[in-house]
Amino acid sequence: MKNVLLISSMALFAVLPLSAQKYVAKNGHIRFFSETPAENIEAHNRQVNAALDLSNGALVFKVLIKSFEFEKALMQEHFNENYMESDQFPNATFNGKLSDPLAFSKASKGPVKVTLEGDLTIHGVTRKVKETATLEWKGEDVSGQAKFIVKPADYNIRIPAAVANNIAKEIEVSVDVNLKAL
Fold first, then answer.
1. pLDDT surpasses 60 at 143
2. Do residues 14 and 6 lie in contact, with contact meaning Cβ atoms separated by under 8 Å?
3. Rounded CA Rg of the chain
4. Whole-number pLDDT of residue 22
5. Which of its termini does the chain have fewer beta carbons within 10 Å around, N or C?
6. Cα–Cα distance, 167 to 182 (Å, whole number)
7. Which domains does the chain have, with CATH numbers?
8. Would you say residue 160 has pLDDT above 70?
9. What integer pLDDT is reported at residue 20 of this predicted model?
10. d(Cα 155, Cα 171) in Å, to the nearest integer?
11. How far is the C-alpha of 18 from the C-alpha of 31, rounded, in Å?
């Protein structure tokens, strides 16, 4: 019986350091902003799922497209039905990693700039991206922010000519998450 207890305790201690390096968020925030002389368009999504594994720098995000909220209901409808075709392409994802996983650790003090590299999938199209992000310890949680510039044309998002001047060629996408230890 003592051997079983000893082996169980050793297994538990062997697993604890691994799980302490994994962090998740279920209510992150993504904001996108399109600025043109004709009109500004802004939407928010506060149902972003994210996971970060500090042991290897792996980072994933997943967002339900229909969860973006707009100031005007008609904009939201057009976004989902005409541009993003969210019934056909319900999610956007990022699957990548910190290019230098050792740049951010428990020893880090204050905000740390890191480079994210990976695959961004929007509207069924996957493209390689490389962006700068900021990570910071907030107690036992990890706070993360990043900005991506997304060109709708790169993701086969068709903008009708009648409204092409109302939507920017480059959309600023801001990500803000608070990741909690597993």
1. yes
2. no
3. 20
4. 96
5. N
6. 40
7. 22-181 (2.40.128.110)
8. yes
9. 61
10. 12
11. 32
